[in-house]
């Protein structure tokens, strides 16, 4: 037998030790991202890491997340908030196959429910379909036109859309009622509604609400209405609009995507930081 020191059998080449250290550093950063953006899958986390300067591919990220039990487990929940049995006028779908060319061309609007500890509340939201940015929202205890009007007023205050912007929604009474239609027409919107019982006509809002619930609502138990309003408001305006990466936007946050598409010279403001 060769007379070798016992330590020889436990020796690891320097490149192996360096790889282990890199994996440990990478895992630490992945854990931080998961804590901040619960519900991110390995592909979106890979893009976030690459934006920060990490040289990784999705296979490596998937391996580390699997080993560390960091892969999200998504729940499925569904409830109906649309009452289309009413006598108000409905409007044709103007957005089907419509090419999107910029912001404030089409707004999508919808309502979902939020469960608190002892009650349900309702969230009305409006998205700019070009950038997926939340341009207006309102949280309320009742499912009525006051809720949707509050979301619309919020959006008008933040955006001031040009004449001819399309407002698309389902055929729910909250969007078809006289008060809401009057507000839209006074602000020179073109009205558009999806087909009855067809979720694909408002798929963008369905996707948005799914992200909201998986990444915010389902992981917290809101004690009361005020806490829900504060947390959801922070998620919509800071996390979703400013930080969350959207695959449909080339893995950019909505605010960054709008800045780059409306002013390409703003590119330098959004260069990924080095690590």
Structural class: alpha/beta
Q: How far apart are the first and last residues' alpha carbons, in Å?
A: 48 Å
Main β-sheet: number of strands, strand sense, barrel status?
A: 5 strands, mixed
Which residues form runs of ≥5 with pLDDT under 50?
7-13, 270-275
What general form does the structure show?
A: globular
**Order of strands across the widest beta sheet?**
3-2-1-4-5
Portion in helices: 40-55%
Report the count of strand segments. Answer: 5
Please characterize this protein's 3D structure:
The chain is α/β, with parallel strands linked by helices and 275 residues long. It is 41% helix and 12% strand. It is built from nine helices and five strands. It has a five-stranded mixed beta sheet, with helices on both faces. Helix 2 packs across helix 3. The longest helix has 23 residues. The C terminus is likely disordered.
Please outline the helices and strands.
Blueprint: H1 14-36, H2 42-51, H3 58-67, E1 106-115, E2 120-128, E3 134-140, H4 145-159, E4 166-169, H5 173-176, H6 178-186, E5 190-193, H7 203-215, H8 225-243, H9 254-262
Parallel strand pairs: 1-4, 4-5
Antiparallel strand pairs: 1-2, 2-3
Helix pairs in contact: 2-3
